[in-house]
Automatic annotation (TrEMBL):
It comes from Pseudohongiella acticola. One of its GO terms (molecular function) is ABC-type transporter activity. Residues 296-361 form the Mop domain. This is Molybdenum ABC transporter ATP-binding protein. InterPro entries: AAA+_ATPase, ABC_transporter-like_ATP-bd, ABC_transporter-like_CS, Mo/tungstate-bd_C_term_dom, ModC_ABC_ATP-bd, Molybdenum_import_ModC, Mop_domain, P-loop_NTPase.
Length: 361
């Protein structure tokens, strides 16, 4: 089943020209610079914007074409924006149940207890909403949208108004929600870390057009990916997260590619994906490389990796594109001096060294 949108729109200097479709499954991130048309596209999908000649299909439901127009409230959507815009006179429960009560009982697929557990809201249910933090308010907004049992969730920068710490706290809830609810999501963001932690696929937009639509893995296979613009290249590893050992480190991933993740609150590091595994983001600049397995060293994670390719990056840096024993890609950023000194080449097996605390961020 696909979400399909075809739309053209001229608004002053801005032109939107989109003809695209993607599977209505998992999390699709719309990523691009400010003003490239992400919100306009989302509003067209939602039916908040009626553009002449546009076509919007959700599976075999036609929401808009030349002869058909389905109003926003009939599309069965969950909408969450940057600002939570909760109803101030109602408690958390009152807000959560607002749309639920207006959803016919035959269509209700999610109930208050499971949604409040998914979003960690159990202890807040009786609070007035003006006694909540920004992150808590946004979790209530997500819960309220979910409890309408939508067939599609549209999220327009739901984390953008939150500070970094709050954003880190809420991100695992968002990814758990994608997994547990089974509701497809469209997430607008210009934050690469949100895409890397949450998305299954990415649609890159630029000047009102679709530049690329690909899986997250494909998006990250390019050394010059727009996702690497802020913090440099990074990898996303998927695996099972084990229980903590006596030093507070948790094992992550299969044997041979196993990492120790030092995470007092693993929410900061790992996010669950819509397939149920845990996702770990590793910045390429946090990984070093050695030809031998160093013994007397504080770094705990020593992984055998094979170099697939070396890329010269702008700014006098070298990116090693490597794969681990389980086949997952691990990117490593080093200086040209190190690459030369170690005589690194494609096909070579080396040790990738990653500090456990680098996985705490
Ligand atoms: N109501 C409007 N009237 C005129 N121009 C508008 C209107 N709404 C949006 N625009 C213009 O349309 C273009 C696309 O805006 P849109 O909000 O879709 O971009 P965006 O990618 O979501 O940006 P941001 O990330 O900053 O939210 C921008 O140039 C914007 O100025």
């Amino acid at each position: 089943m696909n979400l399909q949108i075809k739309a053209q729109l001229q608004r002053g200097d801005f032109r939107l020209d989109v003809d695209t479709r993607w599977p209505a499954q998992g999390v699709t991130a719309l990523f691009g610079r400010s003003g490239c048309g992400k919100t306009t596209l989302l509003r067209i999908i939602a039916g908040l914007e009626r553009v002449r000649g546009a076509q919007v299909w959700f599976g075999d439901e036609c929401w808009q074409n030349d002869s058909q127009w389905v109003a926003v409230e009939k599309r069965r959507l969950g909408l969450v924006f940057q600002e939570a815009s909760l109803l101030p006179h109602l408690s958390v429960t009152g807000n959560l149940l607002y749309g639920y009560k207006r959803t016919p009982s035959t269509l209700r697929r999610l109930q208050l207890p499971e949604v409040s557990a998914m979003l960690g809201l159990e202890s807040l249910l009786s609070r007035p909403v003006d006694a909540l933090s920004g992150g808590q308010k946004q979790r209530v907004a997500l819960g309220r949208a979910l409890l309408c049992s939508p067939q599609l969730l549209l999220l327009d920068e739901p984390l953008a108004a939150l500070d970094t710490q709050t954003k880190r706290e809420i991100m695992p809830f968002l990814s758990r929600l994608a997994q547990a609810s089974g509701i497809p999501m469209v997430l607008i963001t210009h934050a690469p870390d949100e895409v890397q932690r949450l998305a299954d696929r990415v649609m890159f937009m630029c000047d009102g057009r679709v530049d690329d639509l690909c899986t997250l893995q494909q998006a990250m296979a390019k050394p010059d990916s727009p996702l690497f613009a802020d913090e440099g290249p990074s990898s996303v590893l998927e695996g099972e997260l084990g229980i903590a050992d006596e030093h507070g480190a948790r094992l992550f991933g299969p044997e041979g590619s196993q990492l120790r993740v030092q995470a007092p609150d693993d929410a900061n590091t790992c996010t669950q994906t819509s397939t149920g595994t845990t996702r770990l983001r590793v910045l390429a600049r946090d990984v070093s490389v050695a030809l031998d397995d160093p013994a007397r060293i504080s770094i705990r994670n020593h992984l055998v990796v094979t170099i697939r390719q070396l890329h010269d990056l702008p700014g006098n840096r070298v990116l090693l594109d490597t794969f681990m024993q389980d086949g997952q890609t691990l990117l490593i950023e080093i200086t040209p001096w190190s690459a030369q000194r170690l005589a690194l080449a494609a096909g070579q097996r080396v040790f990738a060294l990653i500090k456990s605390v680098a996985l705490m961020r």
